[in-house]
Amino acid sequence: MKLKNNNIRRIAVFTSGGDAPGMNAAIRSVVRTASYHDLHVFGVYRGYEGMIDGHIERLDKGDVGNIIQRGGTVLKTARSDRFRTPEGRKSAYDSLVANDIEGLVAIGGNGTFTGAKIFFEEYGIPIVGIPGTIDNDLYGTDYSIGFDTAVNTAIEAVDRIRDTADSHNRLFFVEVMGRDTGFIALNTGIGSGAGAILIPEAMTSVETLIRHLEKTAKRQKLFSLIIVAEGNGSGNAQKLAGEIKDRFPDYDPKVTIIGHMQRGGAPSALDRLIASRMGFKAVEALLEGHTNVMIGIQNNKMAMVSFDDAINKHKDIDLDLLRMAEILSL
Q1: Which domains are delineated in the chain?
Q2: pTM (2 decimals)?
Q3: Alpha-carbon distance values, 227 to 70, 95, 148, 151, 258 (Å)
């Protein structure tokens, strides 16, 4: 959506939902781009929760120095049940009015943009979103901030597990994050040379997994790494390992759950780059009168996608990559 009359001079930026490496690079980009355009820019601390409580402070270029390489978010983040209520959103609006804020840059994922869409519909404050989620599950962008770092972190962990798996001739199930999508698992599995990858988008039965293990045994492959997405439909890593143990008592499967380690640490070069590009584009989109849109990257070009599409349309995973991974693992 594009507004006809737009004369924004004061904007605020906030991070919401789960943290993702690269959020600080996006904050830095928003603040410095806004300063370049002679805008007053503010930081909202702790997402919608801080907006309700009025935790809003003026930021300038110096406040975002030396943060591009830092993980997490200097503005902190939180999930807000209060913002789901009309009373909570009214308090948030009152806080913005008290600071004369005329536009918002929201950095987060599906829940963040759902709240932003409702907030604009109720109060008309222009909002542009930046996708910040390691899951990479938002429609309309090839990459979300934090995804590349999460994959790199997972691959580094799997490489270390491979060393001990090889030394002890063991079967390892490694569970990675991703909520109900398999983007992290698929990329981690390919990048680490895993023996099998189990993702929600392609149901893999225990029988199929057993047949795969039998094939590897025939060629005397003495260890195997299985990457499991946390939302995998046939069960989590612990459940699958137990089922394999029941069927093959001679196996001694081990389970590693990488967990929240994937959300921490310094952002990769790619995450710093896309976060900087998205922050820059978000400010200029507000100045051009756009609202209710997410900034995305499609084929290495900046794009704007409506919140409706980003939230409601399904982002397909490339199952040809899964087929390739299966072939390369044989």
Answers
A1: 10-146+267-312 (3.40.50.450), 148-263 (3.40.50.460)
A2: 0.93
A3: 28, 45, 17, 12, 11
